[in-house]
Specification:
It is a single chain. With 97 residues, the protein is an all-alpha fold. The protein has 6 helices and no strands. The longest helix is centred in the middle third of the chain and has 18 residues.
Length: 97
């Protein structure tokens, strides 16, 4: 991960802080303080789009169910296929819960 464009001391500190959260309630408290409602909804929407793409849903179905634009759906699809693997990692772990 040393070659990540995001990697720096402040990002390390942010991710270390996130890893310290132990419950869903703690996540709500932290992220409500750190992010705007709009930012959080955008992140949640992207994860939902990624899940639906992995399930083989069409752009039209995803757009209708999530409200995501086709540009967002396309961007998420590109990261699912060519990104760092984060979506696939998280979605695989969520599917095993």
């Amino acid at each position: 991960m040393a070659d990540s464009k995001l990697k720096d001391e402040s990002m390390d500190q942010l991710f270390e802080a996130i890893l310290l959260l132990e419950t869903e309630e703690e996540c709500y408290k932290f992220f409500e303080d750190v992010c705007t409602v709009s930012e959080l909804k955008t992140l949640a929407q992207r994860l939902q789009v990624a899940r639906m793409l992995r399930e083989g849903k069409t752009y039209q179905v995803i757009e209708k169910e999530t409200g995501a634009s086709t540009a967002t759906i396309s961007r998420v699809k590109r990261y699912l296929e060519y990104g760092a693997g984060g979506y696939n990692l998280v979605l695989s772990r969520l599917s095993h819960k």
